[in-house]
Design a protein that fits this description.
CATH topology of the domain at 189-336: Recoverin, domain 1
Low-confidence stretches: 1-9, 11-39
Shape: flat
Number of helices: 16
Strand order of the largest sheet: 1-2
CATH class of the domain at 189-336: Mainly Alpha
Distance between the termini: 125 Å
Number of strands: 4
Length: 431
């Protein structure tokens, strides 16, 4: 499947890339069978909807033809969306169905959110609430129109641009939480144990720092290492153009973010080993993200989140390609300041206090329910006793009045054991 880089911008958003086996010898130039690769989640809450829309649109010959001549700007500014009116009827029908399913899913999310906050949702206005979702037209909830495609592309592009920043922020919070827990743990120890544990932690930190030199991402040294150790080729025969084609695994003419990140594995293995206590795999993924951003910043000149062959070859002509600055790994300096850590700890304490208040409220409510349960149980026993006593008095009254025994539930007579008074004894005839 050969697609233009413009459409690949959207495909990279959905991570819907296809992988084919690399032909190391280059002998077979015939078309290879496309093998689906397990897609990486984009992190977008409408990820599945985005993927399915792309897959359906790719089945239409007219849309695919227009796609071949479209550029990145045509896709970003929505001009390609106008072609939606010319796609086949069954494609439009399928897109309508996908949109209705997405609207239904969003309604369920809204209801769950309102229910969780104890908000009255019986009279909620779905049309108004759906406006908070920017990836579809909330005013038309039944059919997929050109505006829906335009909104989907623009929203996904914007969200993806913010996605990396959100990942960095999540990692910073992860590191601060780790440091907070470390300090709290040390506080719980006596002085002797604390000093011993601090020494052990410092030794682990130093051990982690004693790793081989990490080559700058995208430098000739880093690429040559991949060429030799991963590709198994002679380092003296390194060729940037051949390297690009080898690692353009889906043969679409560009290196997307996943293909770029795959190039950093050898460098990351120098620093991180999942078997080592001192190595944190969360830090490894943050390092991988930083490396990819470094290449995008210096190589992706048109900022479409893809590296073309032309961009790649131009980057190899720069001075930084042969003489890059030394790459600083995450252990070189913390990702947060002491002031940020202190604010984070205040936030944690506030959340802990709030959780304690909620727990206490729930405990009190539980005690109240237990007391009410006991009271209801006592009332039940009193009611049962009163019914028994009333039934007994009724039977005694009937017996005293000489009334026939009461009828059962099916009309049968209910007889009571006969009781004889002393004066009612049979008088036997005298002999």
């Amino acid at each position: 499947m050969k697609l233009k880089p413009g459409w690949l911008l959207l495909l990279s958003i959905s991570a819907g890339v296809w992988s084919v086996p690399i032909d190391r010898n280059g002998g077979n130039q015939e078309a290879k069978e496309e093998v689906p690769e397990e897609n990486a989640d984009t992190g977008l809450y409408y990820d599945r909807y985005l993927r399915e829309v792309i897959e359906v649109l790719e089945t239409d010959p007219h849309f695919r033809e227009k796609l071949q001549t479209a550029n990145t700007e045509d896709i970003k500014n929505g001009r390609l969306s106008k072609e939606l009116d010319l796609v086949s009827h069954h494609v439009r029908t399928r897109l309508d169905e996908l949109k209705r399913q997405e609207v239904s899913r969003l309604r369920m999310l809204l209801k769950a959110k309102l229910d969780s906050t104890n908000t009255q949702s019986l009279q909620m206005d779905h049309a108004s609430l759906l406006k908070q979702f920017e990836h579809l037209d909330p005013h038309n909830q039944n059919t997929f129109e050109a505006k829906d495609l335009e909104l989907l592309i623009s929203t996904a592009t914007k969200d993806l641009e913010n996605y990396d920043a959100e990942r960095h922020e999540e990692f910073k919070r992860y590191e601060m939480l780790k440091e907070h827990e470390r300090r709290e743990y040390l506080k719980s120890l006596d002085q002797e144990k604390r000093e011993r544990e601090e020494k052990r932690m410092q030794e682990l930190k130093e051990k982690h720092r004693q790793h081989p030199k990490v080559n700058a991402p995208g430098s000739v040294a880093q690429l040559r290492e991949v060429w030799e150790e991963t590709d198994g080729l002679d380092p003296q025969e390194f060729n940037p153009k051949t390297f690009f084609k080898l690692h353009d695994t889906n043969e679409d003419g560009v290196l997307d973010e996943q293909e770029l990140e795959a190039l950093f594995t050898k460098e990351l293995e120098k620093v991180y080993d999942p078997k080592n206590e001192e190595d944190d795999m969360m830090e490894m993924e943050e390092e991988r993200l930083r490396m990819r951003e470094h290449i995008m910043k210096n190589v992706d000149t048109n900022k479409d989140r893809l590296v073309s062959l032309e961009e790649f070859l131009k980057s190899t002509e720069k001075k930084e390609f042969s003489n890059p600055k030394e790459w600083e790994t995450l252990d070189a300096k913390p990702v947060y300041t002491e002031e940020e850590l202190q604010r984070f700890e205040v936030e944690l304490r506030d959340k802990e206090e709030e959780l304690k208040r909620r727990a206490e409220t729930l405990r009190q409510e539980q005690e109240l329910l237990k007391e009410r349960g006991k009271a209801l149980e006592a009332q039940k026993r009193e009611y049962q006793q009163a019914v028994l006593e009333m039934s007994q008095r009724q039977k005694e009254q009937q017996a005293a009045d000489g009334q026939p025994p009461p009828a059962g539930p099916n009309g049968e007579l209910q007889f009571q054991p006969e009781t004889h008074k002393p004066e009612d004894k049979e008088i036997l005839p005298s002999q």
